[in-house]
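Lab notebook, bench 4. We co-purified these components, and the gel suggests they stay together. Before we commit to crystallization screens, I want a quick structural picture of the whole thing.
Request: model the full complex, all chains together.
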Amino acid sequence: MEHHATLVLRNRSIAKDYYELLFAWPEGLEPPKPGQFLTIRIADIAMPLLRRPFAVSGYDSRSKTAGIIYQRVGPATRMLAAADAGDMLDMLIPLGNWFPEPEPDATPVLVAGGIGMGPIFYFARSVRAQMLRSADRRSVGRRSPEQRAENREPVLVLGARNVAYLPTEDVLEGLEPVICTDDGSRGFAGTVVDYLKSAGVGKEAEAVLYACGPNPMLEALAAFAAERKLPLWVSMEQTMGCAVGACMGCAIPVHGPARYARVCTEGPVFDAKEIVWTSR
Amino acid sequence: MDLSLTIRGRRLENPVGVASGTFGYGSEYESLIDIDAIGALYTKAVTLEPRPGNAMPRIVETAAGMLNSIGLANVGSRRFVTEKFPFLSQRRCAVIVNVAGSAEEDYCQTLEYLEENAPLWGYEINVSCPNVKHGGISIGSDPHQVESLTAALRKLTERPIIVKLSPNVTDITEPARAAEAGGADALTCINTVVGMMIDTRRKAPVIPGVTGGLSGPAIFPIGLAAVYRTARAVRIPVIGLGGIMEADHAIQYLLAGASAIQIGTANFVDPEVTGNVLDGIYRFAERERIEAIEDFHQFID
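Here is the predicted assembly.
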């Protein structure tokens, strides 16, 4: 964790209320791991006061650029949406834990709901790159869809309220997600859990689920995973004070004697079994 | 120039401390700043037994401030000794343990246990937490209980005792005088201000416990007035906090009568704020030919 002024490279709308901001990763700083987050001091004034947390949505090791995908919801994100290439942002970076890497014989199933797409897209690209590297060692040349399946390439599912909340094609490049919309305006009509059930995903015992999205989606997914006895790793969200483990503000309820865990320090990635689900 | 402060024979090297509850047990900020350069590190409150804290959400941002209801979530005195004390005992800065409890007996047992097992610079007694049902502000708003508790703790330690007061009273000078009469060596003004926010969509309080403690720039004038009045009501030093974001705010507290200050919420916004505030105080003192902390107090009656 370090405190840096970072250079904004690009900031643009990618869907209704959704933005992608790319920035130069600080020199000499360890690269972010998928699931990690950062905080931004939006303005040098008292309103908005607190730094805002955002999950890292991508990192390119060649150009040393990283990104966040965020939703414009209030004054702070409205101000962030107005940032331009060339502006500097005050960041604490990188923060929190990360998604555990899937075992070599596991089939990762990555599920993103709404603005939860950021860390899941980063993880999907990272898992895919790693699998390609290990697949290359097994076979040289182009791979057929069958070979891909055999290589246990990750399944990526993206849920959105409707088509307006789906990101532009270039954001999805190389990800090939299964699209689900609540109103059926694009792709599968229904929730991501409806899709997983209908597609028989996770019937194979070696599936391992990773998810980020709204709490009701994560809770439904946790029930689905528990029913099928599948591991599920979830990236959680909570209002934060310090984001470094000092203020105990970003607690969520967990099983066990401590009763609460800090999203910023013990998380943001948790084993879904640890969490006391309360969204219903 | 020497802006140190001596309380009961122990020195604070500089006037800028970090407030209890905003700096954990120190190690959380180790990779971001030089902790040893801080004037005083006031720990997260320690209670005899561990406390899980309050239901979520615990924090909500407000106009130029934040409302919190953490509920004294802490590891308890035994784990404080085994897990936190080793790091804290190696610090060159003054480490002041914030002690909280539900009743006088709790405070006494906790302080006794710490005195025995985790002796540090001194203690800050939290009689002003607005987010717990027992103890906290229910003691701090009653001058008799403040005096009785302070006197009981006084018998248990020769280390400095600093009593942290709440602004949620009609007249803050009453508990201030009571703490002084009980044997306190210094006072901290102020803890958070009771506040509330309602989520109109859910038509329910944002914080499950209904009210929380307001901190940040929004409460700066409240803290300043409390320090101004308290410093004129007691002879012991007053440590000021509430809404300090920059050196100018800290200097206002010193001019109002504070002998040291603490930075709370601003640590969340800018981890380097303590160093910047201290630099600003030194620059001001140099420009104004101020040689010692008492010199700040000569300007305003």
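The interface with chain B takes residues 1-3, 41, 46-51, 90, 92, 238-253, 258-260 of chain A (CB under 8 Å). Worth comparing against the SEC data before the next meeting. Chain A is about 20% helix and 30% strand.
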